[in-house]
Amino acid sequence: MAITILTDTMCDVPQYYVEKYNIIVLPLLVNFGDESFRDGIDITADEFFKRLESSEKLPTTSQINPPQFESVFLDEIGENNTVIGILGSSKLSGTYNSAMIAKNNIESDHIHIIDSEAVTLGAGLLVIKAARLAEMGKTAEEIVNEIEAAKKRLKQFFVIGNLKYLYKGGRISLSASVIGSILNVKPIITTVDGKLEMLEKTRGIKKAITIVMDMIKEKGWTLDEKVIGINHTLCPEHADYIEELIKMQYKPKEIIRGEVGSVIGTHAGPGCVALHFEL
C-alpha cells in the first residue's frame, strides 16, 4: 500500500516537486466573465496576469467540488493507496469542505484531509514535507500528525506590490488605493489561524522586505537550517532580494522558489513577493 499526497492549486507547489514526488494537484477554476480556466492547466501564470491587468473586473474563482474529489479518492483506493490531502485554508476557500464531503460520502479510513490553514507556497511547503515523509517510509498517521504540528509553526509574510487589486477585490477603499499608490505604500500581510491579516504598511518594496527581516530577528526566530519558501507574482527581482538577505544573515537548509498561481494572484496582483518558513 502506497501513500498518495494530494493538494490543490491554492498551495502553489512548484512543478518540479509535483513531478518528483508524484503529487496529485487538483485545480480550482478561474473565471473571466463567461470563460473558465483550470488554474495551472488551461492558463499559465503569465497568461493569467496579462488578462488580469487588462480586465476591468477581478476574475472570480471556483472551488473544487465533492464529485471531483470522490473520483480521485476512489481511483486511489482502488489502487490500494492511502490518500493524504493537504489543501488551502478553509477560511479562504470551500475546497477543504468539498474534500471532507467526498471523504464522508466514501466512508474510507484510507483518506486523510488536512486544512493547511495557509495559502500559496506556505501550504506548499507542508505538501512537500508530507511527500518527503512518505518517501522516508512514514505511516499515514505519522505524516498527518507531523503536518498538523508543522502547520502551527508555519509563518507567512506577503508584501503586496499593487493596491489596485485589493481595491478591486473590496479589501480597501478607492481613496486608500489611490493615496497608497501615490505614496508607494506596500502592505505587509500574514496568515493567522487561516485568515489573512494586515501586519504593517510602509513605503517601497525593499523597505517592506527589510521590515519583515527585522521582525524575524525581533521575535528571536532564526532561519538557520530551515526550509524556506519564496515566491512571487511577476517580480523575480524581489524574490532574489529576499533570498540574498537570507543568505547574508542565515544558513538555511534549503530555499524553495516558486511563482504565485492564478487563484492567489487574483487578489495579490503582480508585484507581490512572499516568504514562508516553519519555526
SSE ordering = EHEEEHEHEHEHHEHHEEHEHEHE
Strand order of the largest sheet: 10-9-8-13-11-12
Oligomer: single chain
Give the overall shape.
globular
Which fold name corresponds to the CATH topology of the largest domain? Rossmann fold
CATH top level assignment of the largest domain = Alpha Beta
Helix content: 40-55%
Average predicted confidence as pLDDT? 90
Low-confidence parts: 169-183
Radius of gyration: 19 Å
Keywords:
279 residues, alpha/beta, Hypothetical Protein Tm841, Chain: A,domain 3, 2 domains, six-stranded mixed β-sheet, four-stranded parallel β-sheet
Please explain how this structure is put together.
About 5% of the residues have low confidence. The chain is of the alpha/beta class. The radius of gyration is 19 Å and the shape is globular. The chain has two domains: 150 residues, Rossmann fold (3-Layer(aba) Sandwich), CATH 3.40.50; 125 residues, 2-Layer Sandwich (Hypothetical Protein Tm841, Chain: A,domain 3), CATH 3.30.1180.10. The protein is built from eleven helices and 13 strands. The strands form three sheets. A six-stranded mixed β-sheet has the order 10-9-8-13-11-12, sandwiched between helices. Strands 2-1-6-7 form a four-stranded parallel β-sheet, sandwiched between helices. A hairpin with a 2-residue loop joins strand 9 and strand 10. Helix content is 43%, strand content 26%. Helix 3 crosses helix 4, helix 5 runs antiparallel to helix 6 and helix 9 runs parallel beside helix 10.
